[in-house]
Design brief:
The protein is of the alpha+beta class. The protein is 20% helix and 37% strand.
Length: 274
Amino acid sequence: MGSRRLILRHEEFEEGCKASCNGPYDGKWSKTMVGYGPEDNHFVAELTYNYGVGEYRLGTDFLGITVQSSNAVSNAKRLHWPIKEVSAGIFQTEAPGGYRFYLLEEEQLETDPVQKVTLAVSDLERSVSYWSELLGMKVYEKDEAKKRAVLGYSDNQCRLELQDIGEPVDHGTAFGRIAFSCPREQLPAIESLMKKEKQKILTPLVSLDTPGKATVEVVILADPDGHEICFVGDEAFQELSKMDPLGNKLLDDAIASDKSEEWFAKHNMQKASA
């Protein structure tokens, strides 16, 4: 596999998600799940594409994804992808749209090469309390001097890094959400706890349909800085998230059949800037 990410599945939707999975947009959209392995035991990126939106504004909320893979560093250099060494053996690069990645020039792990996801926070103590005491994450590291903390649910999973930026977090319009699966029976309890603690619930327990696939149940929260957090019932998610052998073809077909740019040009219009 090397450092090649896999297209795990691709799905098309004719109207906006009732849990705002594609953001606050009502039109046609798609999602593509990309990762180094199955969603059950790997960190996976969900790439959402809104057909009617041409541009998003980055905020200060998402600070980067760290991947341990010397192959990824070699690939970037071979493909002349912009990359710079920011410290010994650590390279910074950006995906299309400006999303930042940090590549560790070390042998790729047999488990998940994605080491951590870094989010900005405005008050480290408050955020650590929320994620550890309310959401039950373990605190693996905490550096008061650097105003950062690293948390997670399991020793062998991708970690969450919280970095205090000393100012309010700007989510721009390119924001996403971070998702975790848990036993379905825990979802009502999560919602009840947040109500009891007077924390923000963006989407109360709801069922979400995917055409031709399993229906999942989710609860969507927001932490003190407005980072969106989705908890999804694991039993149905196991069925929904099975790797689709047609994923690459479905994505290629969707790209080839996307005539949205031509439609807007024909009508002397531009896609919206979110």
